[in-house]
C-alpha cells in the first residue's frame, strides 16, 4: 500500500474511512473522518494517490500506444482515455502526454496542415 512508512495520519484516516463507508460524498468524508481538508482535497488525494488499485511505476510501451491511439481519437479528453488504462489516473496520463509524448507524436491533422503549407510554398517558388 501507499508508502506505509511515509503515510501521514490524515492519509490513514482517509483510507480507513473509505474502507468502512466506500467512496463518495467527499464533503461528508472530510467532516466525519475528522480531517482538516475539504471534500475536493479528499477526493483528489484518494483518486490520485491512495486508491489500492492504482498502478505505480512507468507507463509501459503498450499503455503508451493506447494513449497515442486514443488521443488521436478523443484529443485531450483525459478521463475518457484513462478508462481504457485501468489503474492509471487521468492526471497521470495528461502529465505523461505533456512531458513525454506531445513533441514526439504529431497528430494526423497537423501533418496535413504541414503538407498543405509545403505545397503552397512550392507553388509560390515556381
Automatic annotation (TrEMBL):
The primary site where this protein sits is nucleus
Q: Does the keyword Lipoprotein apply?
A: no
A single GO cellular-component term from the record reads: nucleus
A Pfam match? Myb_DNA-binding
Keywords, ordered alphabetically: DNA-binding, Nucleus, Repeat, Transcription, Transcription regulation
Outline the extent of the Myb-like domain. 11-50, 51-101
Q: Which SMART domains match?
A: SANT
Q: Which InterPro entries match?
A: EOBI/EOBII-like_plant, Homeodomain-like_sf, Myb_dom, SANT/Myb
Q: What is this protein called?
A: Putative transcription factor MYB-HB-like family
**Amino acid composition bias (Low complexity), ranges on this chain:** 111-126
UniProt-recorded Gene Ontology molecular function terms = DNA-binding transcription factor activity; sequence-specific DNA binding
Query: Where does the HTH myb-type domain lie?
Result: 11-50, 51-105
Q: What's the domain of life for this entry?
A: Eukaryota
UniProt region (Disordered), positions on chain: 107-126
Q: Where in the cell is it found?
A: Nucleus
